[in-house]
Every structure is written in structure tokens, then in C-alpha cells.
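tool_call: predict_structure(chain=1)
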Amino acid sequence: MPKIIEEVYYNGARQRVERLGLVPLIDEIRAIIEGFTLLVKEQKDSNGGAAVRRMVDAGFVKVGGWTRKVTGDIDWVKCKTVTELAYASAPKSSSPRVAISSWLT
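tool_result:
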């Protein structure tokens, strides 16, 4: 199984995640990334980024609630309302999101 050995937060991202109540979403992402078996094969092209990417994508589909975007956008998006009051007057596009970029391609 893949294992996350280091997490790096930039520009106060960790504090914002905690303040916005998004820690469960980050935990869900960790579980998806670490939740599949990754076997190394002795076949050409079987260990490439595309194969790993398919496994990660399958994890997001299995968990559910994540929306896949097209190329050139954020790959997986999940919107979460933390409190109705805090975002009642904000535009819909301002909902807090956790994004998984195309770092595997």
C-alpha cells in the first residue's frame, strides 16, 4: 500500500483547514491515497504514472461524493458546507474545496 511519509502545508494552509473544519476531508484524501495495493510488476509500462493514476481515481470513485473534472482543471473536487451561517451570503463558488491536482500525471 502506498504510504504518505511527509505532508507540507504552505502559507498557513494547515490553520485554514482546521479553522474551516476540513480536517475530515483531508483524512479522507489520506485514506484514498493510502487505501489501495500497489504491486510492482516486471512488465513494461505496468508501473507508470498512468497505472497508479487509475488506482487513485478508482479510490475517489469508490468513496463517493467526489466530482472529477476535465483536463486542465482540478482533478477531483468535493464541496463541503461547514456551517450554513458562515456561507449563507457568499457566492456558491466560494464553498470550501479540497483539490487533488494532477500531480500523478
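agent: The longest strand covers residues 76-79. Proceeding to next step.
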